[in-house]
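Chain A, query sequence.
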Amino acid sequence: MKKILFLAVLFTSTAIYKSQGVGVGIGNTNPTQTLDVTGNTKVSGELYFENPGTFTGPSTNSYLIVRDNSDKALKRYVPATSDYSAINSTVYHITNITPGGIADFDTKIPTSKYYLIIGGFIVRGVDNNSNIRITQDNITKNYIPQYSARSFERNGTWHLKFVPNNNRVFHQNPEIRLSVSVYRKDMLTTVNPTITFNMNGDASGNGSAPTPALP
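Chain A, predicted structure.
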């Protein structure tokens, strides 16, 4: 008897409408799609999209459906509330650097939420002068590579380093542009380990990425 009463309340509190030749509306008297729901929707099982379509608008004007790996629940993710998008690319233009380069530049980007990768760099002299060199440039073959560019974690934030190798220095104060990519950790569920491949002295080789462990 309790089950029958529950079903009666359910059907009377939720109005389902069918439009001729269009679709079914839940809480909607004029459905415009095959299924048109007005209100919140809760899915307790798996949710599949065979053909979700293509969204060409900005992410700041939209919501994303994501799965929280901590409780396996589907949740709404609002990109506009994030300091950075899922993948953010920017350029750090750092000027008037000492001839020794950048030993430690704090980006203030928290390591708990993001990954930071240096994708490339450009070195210029004062006022964007391309005529810049480092000491001992007449024997550069003994010092390859010339520069060391990397990001590292310190005290909870990402830091940047760009210095000439083997205690060399620039002959003037340089300007450095570092192309940086920032990735949200909660959007990257799997990070592959380092891939090591022995070329055995050959000029070519074949390598494959390991299969990621799906959540």
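Helices lie at 2-13. The radius of gyration is 28 Å.
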